Fold this sequence. Notes:
By secondary structure, chain A is α/β, with parallel strands linked by helices. Chain A has helices at 15-22, 26-33, 41-54, 60-67, 83-98, 112-124, 142-148, 172-185, 201-217, 233-243, 258-271, 304-319; strands at residues 72-77, 102-107, 129-132, 153-156, 166-170, 191-195, 226-228, 252-256, 280-284, 298-301, 326-329, 332-334. In chain A, the strands form two sheets. A six-stranded parallel sheet of chain A has the order 2-1-3-4-5-11, sandwiched between helices. A six-stranded mixed sheet of chain A has the order 7-6-8-9-10-12, sandwiched between helices. In chain A, strand 6, helix 9 and strand 7 (226-228) form a beta-alpha-beta unit. Chain A is elongated and about 90 Å long. Strand 2 (102-107) of chain A pairs antiparallel with strand 2 of chain B, so a sheet runs across the interface.
Amino acid sequence: MPRSKGKKSSAPVTIHDVAERAGVAISSISRVLSGHPDVSERMRIKVQKAADELGYEPDFFAQSLRSGATKTIGFIMRDISNPFFGVIAQCCEQELRKAGYSMLLMNSDGDVATESTNIAQLRRRKIDGLIASLVSEDIPELNSTLEKLNAPVVLLDREVVGLNSSAILANHHQGVEDATVDLISRGHKRIAFISGSTRVYTTRDRLKGFKSAFKKAGIAYPTDLVSLGKFDAEFGESETKRLFTLKDRPTALLSGGIGSTAGAMRGLKKLGLVPGKDLAFVAIDEWPMFDVYGQQFSSVYRDAAMMGREAAAALLEMISGGSPRTIMVETHYIVRESSTGGLKAKKK
Amino acid sequence: MPRSKGKKSSAPVTIHDVAERAGVAISSISRVLSGHPDVSERMRIKVQKAADELGYEPDFFAQSLRSGATKTIGFIMRDISNPFFGVIAQCCEQELRKAGYSMLLMNSDGDVATESTNIAQLRRRKIDGLIASLVSEDIPELNSTLEKLNAPVVLLDREVVGLNSSAILANHHQGVEDATVDLISRGHKRIAFISGSTRVYTTRDRLKGFKSAFKKAGIAYPTDLVSLGKFDAEFGESETKRLFTLKDRPTALLSGGIGSTAGAMRGLKKLGLVPGKDLAFVAIDEWPMFDVYGQQFSSVYRDAAMMGREAAAALLEMISGGSPRTIMVETHYIVRESSTGGLKAKKK
DNA sequence: GCATAAAATAGAAACGTTTCCAGAAACGAT
DNA sequence: ATCGTTTCTGGAAACGTTTCTATTTTATGC
């Protein structure tokens, strides 16, 4: 008689309790509840009844320990408070939940060490899959770290060579190129470009679009106005201030990533420069509500919700044996007020 | 000889492997690694060495199954893509991670049924604690559902009577009252008020501040201009349109919650009404970047980051045996351009 | 009715830990 | 030396499942 007789009603009910109540073996309980085919109708009913009466809920840890599947997906982002990532996370979680998976969320704070600690933690938790927006693509031990996870991986906006993972990539260069072409056609030559680290695809692909627009126009791109470093607001702000106090100051600005854009806007404000008037301005990635704020900001738009859904879909596919694949998400240049200005009434 | 000899190098290394390598019992491994005091220096070194050499990482599920502690915190929000909740989640996760906990994130999508499914899921996963912003406070079975979790709970901006949980409450009424008093003092009487469901503390406390401002001014508050229902943008937009096309249309608007505000702003835009000119406008809760957008929006501000940190702290405290407590977070009325306008050049 | 196959069930061995218990070694005091 | 303590260690029993194997029951074909 291993377990006390209902003394504490709060003691969780286990598979043994159900077996005792139904008068059958615990293996039969397991079989019924997991939908095993070799089960008689009589048994099914008897077990179901006992389980319902006791309000039995299988213990997750015991199940996972035995079966190996944890029904848990790791999700690593630089910073979930970034609304762009927030939308991705939300859509992703919805899809995963529908499929019976739960999401373990971790912020990397943009720090390589934190990220690697997080991955280690997720490995110990035996996650069934990982969705991540990595801090950097060229960490030496990255591939082995991810492979040791022994679980499918979906990367968001990252290209890691030699890794057998799926990827959701945005076609940044197209949108940025369109925007830059437009600015050039309006007469701009001194166009500033601020984005994050070149250690990630995002920045490299945006830069590609920027350069290619200048190439098409047959003019050299302004190397002194390209500032690549970090994605955070501080960097965006200080670089904006630096660039727009240069002797030969830019007439237009493209700022990349939601953090950079926030910083750039603050910087401009402090300099007393108004987008759409004192300079032309295009934000790469939209802040929520970009469409309704008083000031109309142009942008290079991409659909975060779709990226989240696609990431979930790709991961679930791999979990059920599918092969990794790369999904390309388009970006679109959206022209609003702020694309004008900056050219001292040259045309009007 | 229960386990194969290093045939597959990818086979995870268990406590048995370490024991074998160090030539000691598995119980000793466990004792060393969990920092048990009754362990000799010689043993400690020997075990540590073997564990390091093999790169041993304890299996999380086995640990949890045996010890009962999961080092996992559930986190339920209406919608993580809401930047306000995003900031809370981010700060919360940071604090919890520092303490060795991981965060299981679930969106309730503002739906009672989904929320309850999520809680059930978290119960099966035996979480050590829950932080939640509930859909509603008056669900009949809510208390028992949460108590069955058998884990400490911290509620965000919710008051559930008879539940032994901590709560992080924002002092909404103060900020809203200040804002309303200011609007009244500027000459407004027809002030519209849009916020979410009265089934949660948030709305009720805001309404309290709104009413109390009118009481102080000695005038009746405009019951026909108070619209309480949902927190989402659709509601905010349609109600704004309805209220501002009334015969006796309001001259000012307070919109509550980040979603409502988004909707309200869209609605105003579609009506061609400009905040700060055609009406006075105060947002309750700030969107990120409120300080830099071209249009300057007044707001009732509260510190989301602090709420996140406090929530984590309160939960960790309860996990280590502390008692539940209620933390009040102040709100502040921040006056910007949009507080002006709406009064047909009455004063100038 | 009987042999044979198929279906259903029970029992027990995992899964990888922690923790309890008992025994061995070390230590000081007599 | 001997005896009690204390300190340390090994063995084994949990934790709550799933799954393998063996056994019993039922169905099938003659």
